[in-house]
Design brief:
The protein contains one helix and four strands. The chain has 90 residues and is α+β, with helices and mostly antiparallel strands. Strand 1 and strand 2 form a beta hairpin. The chain starts with 13 loop residues before the first strand and ends in a 7-residue tail after the last helix.
Length: 90
């Protein structure tokens, strides 16, 4: 997925930042992480809306439970949040 330029400074020097923390284990003793992600401008440090959810570590291709999502899906939501921002017109 492509990033739109920064709506504040116009830069295309952007990065995807993410954080995760252990929140527990599922019924099969697999770690569950809370995973959050956002896009940030490396020039003016503007940040897009945060996307987040619970992810399972080492899930091995089994169908995900309804409460879980993938890191890729959360990252795509963060990029979508960034791209939806209104560009400032001077």
């Amino acid at each position: 997925m492509n990033y739109e330029p920064c709506p504040f400074c116009g830069s295309d020097k952007l990065k995807l930042t993410s954080k995760h923390r252990l929140v527990g284990y599922n019924g099969m003793d697999m770690p569950v992480h809370a995973y959050t992600c956002s896009v940030r401008c490396n020039v003016c440090h503007a940040r897009g809306g945060t996307a987040g959810g619970k992810t399972l570590v080492r899930y091995g291709g089994l169908p995900l439970p309804e409460w879980a999502t993938t890191r890729e899906a959360i990252e795509a939501m963060a990029i979508e949040n960034w791209n939806r921002r209104v560009r400032r017109v001077c």
